[in-house]
Amino acid sequence: MKMKLTALAIALAATAIVNAAYADEFKVGSVISLTGANARGGTGMHEGMLTAVEVFNKQQPKHKIKLVTIDDESAPAKAIAGVEQLASQNVLAITGGATSDLVGPASTAANKAGLVYITSGGTSEEFVTQGYKKFFRINNTNGYVRAMTGMFADMGIKSLSIIYSTKKSTNELAVDVNKIMTAKGVKVTLHPFDPAIADFKPIINKVKLQDRPDAINMLGYENDYVGILRAAKVLKPNVKALVGVWQIANAKMSKDFPDLVPNVSGTEILPYPAEFDSAEGKQFEATFKALYHKSPDYLSEYGFVQAMALFEAIGRAADKGSLMKDGLADEMRKTDRTTLIGRLQFDARGDNPNFIQHIGQHQNGKIVIVWPKEFATGKMNFPGVPW
Amino acid sequence: MSDLILQSLFSGLLTGGSYALIALGLAVVFGTMKIINLAHGELVLLAAYIAYMTESGLKINPLLAIPLALVVVCIASVLVYFFVSKIKKDRELNSLLLTYGIGIVLTNAILLIWKSDIHSTSNAWFQEAFVLGSLYSMNSELLFFIVSLVLMLGGWWWLAKSWHGRAVRAVASNRDAAKLMGINPQWTELISFVLAGVLATFAGVALYSSGVIQPALGESLTVKAFIITVLAGAGSIPGVLVGAILLGVVESLTITLYSSALQELTGMLLFLLVLFVLPNGLFGASRRRG
Questions:
Q1: Does B212 touch chain A (CB under 8 A)?
Q2: Are A219 and A305 members of one domain?
Q3: pLDDT attached to residue A16
Q4: Quick one: closest CA in A to B214, which residue?
Q5: Chain B residues with beta carbon closer than 8 angstroms to that of A171
Q6: What are the chain A neighbours of B8 within 8 Å (beta carbons)?
Q7: Which residues are CB-contacts of A284 (< 8 A; sequence separation ≥ 6)?
Q8: Which residue among A37, A193, A209 sits closest to B216, beta carbon to beta carbon?
Q9: Same domain, yes or no, for A238 and A362?
Q10: Any CB–CB contact under 8 A between B137 and chain A?
Q11: In chain A, fewer beta carbons within 10 Å around the N or the C end?
C-alpha cells in the first residue's frame, strides 16, 4: 500500500512538473479574405500571419499562439459574423482585414465585443477618428500619399491625371493627392471610375486629348491596372510616368504582365528580389520559404508585421499578468520597435505615425526602389512608360 | 471633342459586341425555358479559365483552347439543365435559387483549381492596337466583335431556318402545342442549354483574350447578361445585339461626357427607362405591336 501511494505521489509530481513546462496557449482570431474579390490580398496577408505564428512560437517557447482563421469571403456581413463567432470562442484579439470595406464592419464588431483589432488593410482615415480604443493599424493613407506626392514633386511634373476607383481607400487617396498636388501648383484632373468598369479607353482618351498631363496616377487594384495599362498602350498618351499605388510594383505583376509594367512605378517597401538585411527579415524570409516554397511579398510582409506586433504585446501582457485584466490594448500602445516596414509605434488613435511607403519601379523584370533617395536601390527611369 | 465622341462611340460599339456575346446564351435559355440561368456568368468564366490554362500550360494561342472549352462548358451546361429539369414545382422561382447555388459552387471550384489571382492573355497580337483613322482598339476587341456578329447571325439563322431552331421557338411560344406537333420539349430544352454552352465558350475565350479574369467575376457577368436579356425582350437575338450595343455606347458616352463613376448608374437608368416605355423589352414590344 505504501509503495502504491509513493508511486502515485511521484506520478502526480511528475505530471505537475510536465504541466509547468507547457507553454501558455493563447487563441488569436483572424478574419481575412481567402475567397472572393479580395482573396489575393487576403491570402498573402494570411500567409504572413501564419509565418508570424511560426516565428513567435519558436522565439518565445513559454507562450504559444494558436491562430483561428475565418474566411470573410470578401463580404462585409461575413466579416462581422466572423468576428462575432471568434469572440464567442474567447479569442484574445483579431488580426485581419484585406481592405477598408471589410475592416470597417469587422473593427466595429470587434469594438462591440471588446477585442483588440489590428490590420494593415484599413488605411482610411475614418478608422482612427471613430474613437475605438482597441483599434490598431500599421499603415495608413497618409504614408501612401506622402510617397506618391513626394515622388511627383521630385519629378517636377506640372500636370497630373488621377484615375481612381470609387472604393473607399482609393477615393480617399485621390482626394488627398489632389489636395497636396494642387497646393504645390500642379494642374490635377480627377477621373473616378466604377469598380465594374470593363473598358478604360474612354478615360485614357480623355487623358490623352483633354488633360495632356505629365504623369498619370493610377489608384486602384491589380485588375484595374491591367485595364488602364492596356488602354494606355493602345492609345499612347504623351506622358512621362505612370505611377500606381498598392498591388502594382510587385513580382507577380512583373511575372504575369511583363509587357505592361516596364517603367511603371508603385508604392512598395522592398525591392524584388527581396533583400532583407535585418536578422528578423532573414528569419521571416527563411520561415516563409519553408512554409510556402516561394518568396514573400509585401502582402505577407504586412501580415507578418501586424501579427508579430500583436503576438508580442500578448506575450508582454501575459508576463505582467495584465492579459486577463484587459491590458492588451495598453501593451499594444507601448509597442516601439523597428520592423520590416520601419519603426512601429501606435499613437493614441491606434495609428502608426512613422509609416511611409517607398516607390518601386519595374525595371527589366525586377522591382527597383527609386524613391525616397535614401532608400533607393537604383536609378529611376524618367521619363519612362511601357511603350 | 469630335475625336473624343467618335472614339467613345467606337469603344462602346466594341464593348457592346462583347456584352452581346455574353448575354446571348442566357437569352436563348430564357426564351426556351422562361428561366434565368444565374450560373451563366460562371460558365463564361469557366471557358475563360480553360483558355488561361491552355495558354499558360501549353504556351499556345488561347483560341486553340476553344475545342476543349466547348466540351467542358457544354457538359457543365447540360449538368445545369439536368438539375433544373428535376424541378417539378414553381420552376421559374426555384430555378433561380438552384442556378444561383450552382454559380457559387462553380465560383469556388474555379477558385480551388486556379486560385484567386487575376489572369489575362500574354498573347501580344491580341493586345496590339488596331488603328482606323483616329479610332483605336485592341486587335482582340475587334476580332471578337466580328465573332459576336457572326454568332448572332448564325444563331438567328439557326432559329429561323433549321428544324431544331424552329422547335426551340415553338417550345418557347407554347410548350403544350409544340408537344402536340411531335416536338420533344425536353430535348429541345437540352439543345438550348448546349447552345448556351457553345456561346458561353466563345464569350469566355473572348473575355480572357481582351480583358482580365478573376474567380469573383461570374456574378457581374450574369447581372450584365440579365440586364441585356430583359432589355432585349425574351429570346430576341436582334434584341440582344441592339440592347448590348446600346448599353455599351451609353456607358462609354457617360464616361466621356460625365464620369466613369456614373457608368453603372446610367446603364441601369437606361434599363429602367426602356422597361418603363416598353415593358416587354426593345424587341418583345415591337413583336407584340406588329
A1: yes
A2: no
A3: 46
A4: A37
A5: none
A6: 202, 205
A7: A51, A55, A276, A296, A301, A304, A340
A8: A37
A9: yes
A10: yes
A11: N
Q: What angle do CA A361, A365, A368 make, to 5 degrees?
A: 30
From its phi and psi, is residue B13 left (phi > 0), alpha (psi between -120 and 50) or beta? alpha
Residues of A in contact with B11 (CB under 8 A): 199, 201-202, 205
pTM of the predicted structure, to 2 decimals: 0.81
Q: Do residues A103 and A156 share a domain? A: no
Q: Scanning every residue of chain B, which has its alpha carbon at the shortest distance from the alpha carbon of A34?
A: B116
In a domain, A64, yes or no: yes
Task: State the CATH number of the domain containing residue A205.
Answer: 3.40.50.2300
Note the pLDDT of residue A14: 54
Digit-coded pLDDT (tens) for B148-192: 999 999 988 988 888 988 888 888 778 888 888 888 988 998 999
Q: How far apart are CA A303 and CA A137, in angstroms?
A: 11
Supply the range of the domain harboring residue A84. 2-140+277-345
- pLDDT value for A116: 97
Over the Cα atoms of chain B, what is R_g? Answer: 19
pLDDT at position A278:
87
Residue A384 inside a domain? The answer is no
Same domain? For A225 and A295 the reply is no
Least Cα separation, residue A60 to chain B (angstroms) = 34
Q: What's the confidence (pLDDT) of residue B290?
A: 34
A43 in contact with B, Cβ within 8 Å: yes
The size of the A-B interface in CB pairs under 8 A is 108
The confidence score (pLDDT) of residue A5 equals 54
Q: Given pLDDT bands bounded at 50, 70 and 90, which one contains residue A20?
A: very low
pLDDT of residue A119 exceeding 50: yes
Residues A293 and A205 in one domain: no
Q: A264-321, pLDDT tens digit by residue? A: 999 988 888 877 878 999 999 999 999 999 888 888 999 999 999 999 999 999 999 9
Q: With helix as H, strand as E and coil as C, how does A125-181 read?
A: HHHHCCCCCCEEECCCHHHHHHHHHHHHHHHCCCEEEEEEECCHHHHHHHHHHHHHH
Subunit contact B118:A226, Cβ cutoff 8 A: yes
Would you tell me how many other CB atoms lie within 10 Å of the CB of residue B68?
Answer: 15
- Is residue A387, in this structure, part of any structural domain at all? no
